[in-house]
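Mods, move this if it's the wrong board.
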Amino acid sequence: MMHRTRNGSTLIEVMLFLSIVAIMSTAIVGTFISIQDARIRQQYMSEVGQRGAQLLGTITKNIRASEVILSPQTGAPSSTLALQMSQNSVNPTIFIRTSSGNIILIQKTSTAALLGQRVTVTGLQFINVANASVAVSFDMSVMLPTIPPRTYSEHFEGTATLTPKKASNGGCATCSLPVCSGGLEQWQYCDNGTCTASTVRVGC
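Not the wrong board. Structure tokens:
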């Protein structure tokens, strides 16, 4: 009586095959995750560069369009910039950094946050150079979604000069200078030829 030999895989061969598949799968998944992480990091870093340039551009554009630097005083650095504008609808124009690292733009009685949720600003500084130019500098940061998370920062700086023109203060007499009091920015705006205290509350 003849015995036929059965062709099949032994348990060891099956386990070896499964181990190889597991190793290859792990390597493929790891590579995919690394590529995704690199893409996300690049996206976050690019966002910092774009938003930093936009913020610097917004600030310098308003400086060039202003009549007078209300604050800071000449030679004194400050984290708040207040500008007297010729157009009453945007007078005064004020830039303030909040405690959370956002930048608030005040124009007369309207306010707008200039940054998104991911990026923050630190080290914001305005220097009034001889009451004709303003030097601006700040660091913009983002928390990268790495393991462990780490912070990526870029430094931005620039200088803008006022466009010479006759100061009008928006059609009013001299109003009180903007001031930070009790953690809130207080300022006046021109309303029908009268300096009026703003009731809008912005942290400073």
